[in-house]
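Try this one yourself first.
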């Protein structure tokens, strides 16, 4: 939609002979205010229809529709990524679809590593920011089949010998390394 400054004034749509009347000028000035307000509200409604542009209000509606429970202190970007990833959970799921959704959810493939042990139906994740721990856990609980196991390792420090991680599986911390 065009910005308010780019739009023509309503009086410009009238024939020249009508533009001369002071009553018409005043009516068009008031109508411009009203139309600008309506135009602005239409823009807000359209923004709420798109996950990337929505506000806290729109995001909370998406989360309620999808049954997502979020932490009010959580970053809006993480919440938006979660909604985008959960949006595809009812489609036929493939490994490629899982990877695409993980990239959306975790903000890109550089934020995690994943290894698969398909013989034992197991996935192992290494994530590099602990803020994604509960986000990833909730997502995997939703999309993975019941017979698939997963482990999440959270790296706290990658400096040489100071590698620290948390081994997380099935909603409990198994060990710290």
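Now uncover the answer:
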């Amino acid at each position: 939609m065009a910005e308010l400054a780019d739009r023509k004034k309503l009086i410009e749509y009238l024939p020249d002979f009508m533009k001369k009347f002071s009553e018409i000028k005043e009516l068009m000035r008031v109508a411009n205010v009203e139309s600008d307000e309506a135009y602005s509200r239409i823009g807000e409604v359209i923004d709420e229809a798109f996950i990337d542009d929505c506000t806290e209000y729109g995001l909370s509606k998406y989360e309620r529709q999808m049954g997502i429970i979020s932490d009010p202190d959580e970053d809006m970007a993480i919440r938006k990524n979660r909604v985008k990833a959960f949006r595809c959970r009812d489609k036929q799921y493939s490994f490629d679809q899982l990877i695409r959704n993980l990239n959306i959810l975790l903000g890109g493939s550089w934020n995690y590593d994943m290894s698969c042990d398909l013989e034992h139906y197991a996935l192992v994740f290494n994530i590099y920011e602990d803020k994604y721990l509960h986000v990833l856990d909730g997502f995997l609980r939703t999309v993975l089949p019941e017979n698939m196991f997963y482990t999440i390792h959270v790296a706290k420090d990658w400096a040489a010998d100071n590698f620290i991680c948390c081994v997380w599986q099935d909603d409990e911390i198994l060990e710290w390394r």
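Discussion: The first strand starts at residue 112 and ends at 117. Strands lie at 112-117, 122-127, 149-157, 164-169, 172-176.
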